[in-house]
Amino acid sequence: MKDRVADDLTSPTTPTIPINDLNMFEAHQPRFSLEELRQVLWERNDLKTKLMEVEEE
């Protein structure tokens, strides 16, 4: 059992990702979910509308 655990630790089943590849991988990952992005855009548009209304007064 001890040897099997040691073998599992020394030979991972998933390959490790080099640092350069990891940076490329993270660059293509979304920072926000689609729902979070929609909410942020909705709030931005709402604030822009309110600002325009205040500027007109």
TrEMBL record:
The RH2 domain is annotated at: 29-57
What domain of life?
Eukaryota
- Give the residue spans that cross the bilayer: none
Give a Pfam family name: RILP
What InterPro entries does this protein map onto? RH2, RILP_dimer
Q: In Gene Ontology terms, what is one molecular function of this protein?
A: protein dimerization activity
Q: This protein is called what?
A: RH2 domain-containing protein
- Gene source species: Rotaria magnacalcarata
Show the taxonomic lineage. Eukaryota, Metazoa, Spiralia, Gnathifera, Rotifera
